[in-house]
Request: fold
Amino acid sequence: MSRWLPSLAIAFGLATLALADPQPAMKLLNATSEVSAVTVYKSSALVTREVQVPEGAGAFELVVSPLPPQVVEGSLYSEGSDGIRVLATRSRTRAVMEDTRDEVRKVEAQIKELELAGQKLQGEQKVVDQNLAMLSKLEAFTGSSLTHLTDKGFFNSDAIMALAKYVMETRTEKAREQVSLGQQWQTNQEQLAFLRRKLEELSSGGGKTEHDAIIVVDKRNAAAGVLRLNYLVGSATWRPQYKLRAGKDQEPVQLEYLAAVEQNTGEDWNNVAITLSTAQPMLNAAPPELKMLDVAVVPMSAPGSQAAGGPGINFKQTGQQAKGLRAQAQQELNFNNTLTGGKLINDAAALEQCRELLARKDDELELRQASPDEGPSLVYKLPTRLSVPSRRDEQVVQVARVDLSPDYFYKAVPVLTPHVYRLANLTNRSEHILLPGEATMYIGADFVGRTELPLVAVGEQFTVGFGVDPQLQVQRKLIDKSKSMQGGNQVLKYEYRILVNSYKQQPVKLQLWDRLPHAESSTLAVTLNAQKPEISKDPLYLREERPKNLLRWDLLVQPNMTGENALAVNYDFKLELDRQMQIGQVTSK
Reply:
């Protein structure tokens, strides 16, 4: 047993030394940082800060303060560089006496000034009220003194008139002062209410709590360095906008691809590299686990079942629920809440599969057209560094500018409107997919209207409108109508004429559209007879639109075709139906 004594003594000695000389605490250093890059998503933004690491080797903690009020807890992560290894990144919150944001402090100072001014007005109003009360006492005293002096035979008319004049003038002056103070008080309260509403908006998500990042680093060399801190923030989004400018027929159409950015994160982005993305931020490294899809079977006569003719499922409502669950799931996964996020995303997928399994026939079209991800996931890196301050209104930045070669034509639909519109076929020759969004249309510097741009792939052709051209006019007239009997059927005949007047000095291409009645059932037969000129031979039109009884003419309208020289389009058609039947409801479908 004696041989173990030296070992025990050594161990006891080491333990005693450890207790006597504890490991020194890790250094806590404040680090300077600035935002260098931002990726803006549809409902959040990923912010990258460059953090300056001071000189000195070893392990220590860096404090990056303050983070913006809208920072997403649990989304912080850091990336080291040569000689700097990041061991951990965490966040902390701390209470502060007052909001440190300049804009908030400015509004708070204005509120304090108005509150002091309001107290001063209340004091002045109280003094005026007291003076008026004293004036009323003086008036009563004057009246009683006048009665007393008159009874004694000592009536002094000059003194009485002077005193009466003093009372009247003083009362008038004090009344004006009272009204003025009341108006100032009302203005003060209106301004105070506005500033309090503004402060409430600015302070949303902030309050008197600040967020810090604590980064534990292990530094191998003594030289100063840089690391990157990343975190998600809310209250940030963007949407595409476009401006298209047309010139003369031979000039290109200039397309400006813009982005309207909203950022109310409480943190200014000054001179940063901005990337716009249509995807969701993905901070989870592994995919969620697929769970079993459990289906319960009920009798066909059960209330609400599809076979019983019950309500089934609400396609719009379940689609919105699935979309909301997917957004919540991604948020939980970004917080590293794997179990919760996995359950939510499985629930969202179950709702989407439920829509597929229980779709009625009239729901299938909506189901085929549904797009769960709202289009492709795209990333746009803006070519220059920009500054986007934190504020509540939209800020427009330019994504790209490109010149497109137009193929101009005109379109007339006289059954809908007497106006003729100028259009252009364009091909997206840029490097960017054009997302759906609002487009503002110009001819030169003149605004001509707005339109909605669809999703346009690179190399895809699309059509845009440039407003009404008053130099082209159309008129649609019913020329003749007749009714006859043929066997057991009645035959209705109609003849129409469309006149196109051109006051332009050059020939133009015109698409002219009209329509015939269309019936799904065989009880009504529709036949197009003579057309002069003939309808379009375009294969795409004949495949897609002609079966719907939509008529299109591709015309070349020569200059100065007006009056008797107007271009005439004539056509007639007939309807055949049983003599015992009649046309009922007519709708646009």
User: Anything to note?
Assistant: The longest helix spans residues 102-152. The radius of gyration is 40 Å.
